[in-house]
């Protein structure tokens, strides 16, 4: 016997759990901005709160060879441009359609290559996913994207770091249609979009069924003209994020800005 007491049973487990908890906070802490009230109150630029009189119109998960052309047709008939956050995997399957979106004058953003929950991915996998998406989008559309929206609207520290390395400005949204909810109609989607302030907001719809229940995009398609009519009624001008304010401009250096107002990772920069 040495005269020293034996370590308490399981004593080695406490520092391991503390280390794991610390890593989880660093990894997934920015994901708290996925909560709308947190985002809108503390990070208005991340929520896409822009200049008065303007509504940033954004779409996720495309291009979809069935749905996206219908959205493009509606936007074209009204002379409205928007921002499309594209999935690299979808662009790889529909490269001509991706080029058509850009050719119609719409802005192109990055939604990742695969639609995966980023807090569960490590730094290398996260960077590879975003870089791969940027490469395929730029190759197929002729546009080097500068905007990024994470899948599910949930960020992670590696995602913020990767976005900054790739020169991407991160933006989520202020209101969304939630057209993927069972029983959604064009009217219910419009009601959800306009439940909060519309003036200066960034709104989100999905122009694709790739990551939603089959046919859910039809409620968004039906809501689009209703939303544009509502903007007209309120004297608001819908358009892409690039017209929403300098925080989302492609020429950020000229505006004297960095990669946007995004949450800072614990113990370091975004």
Give an account of the 3D structure.
The chain is an alpha/beta fold and 270 residues long. It has one domain: Alpha-Beta Barrel (TIM Barrel). 38% of the residues lie in helices and 11% in strands. The strands form two sheets. Strands 1, 2, 3, 6, 7 and 8 form a six-stranded parallel sheet that branches. A two-stranded parallel ribbon has the order 4-5. β6, α8 and β7 form a beta-alpha-beta unit. The N terminus and C terminus are likely disordered.
Summarize this structure as a short list of keywords or feature phrases.
single chain; 270 residues; alpha/beta; TIM Barrel; 6-stranded parallel beta sheet; two-stranded parallel sheet; 9 helices; globular; disordered C terminus
What count of structural domains? 1
What order do the helices and strands follow?
Answer: HHEHEHHEHEHEEHEHE
Distance between the termini: 52 Å
What is the overall silhouette? Answer: globular
Count of helices?
A: 9
CATH topology: TIM Barrel
**Stretches where pLDDT falls below 50 for ≥5 residues?**
1-6, 14-31, 252-270
At CATH level 2, the architecture is: Alpha-Beta Barrel
CATH superfamily descriptor:
Glycoside hydrolase/deacetylase
**Strand tally, please?**
8
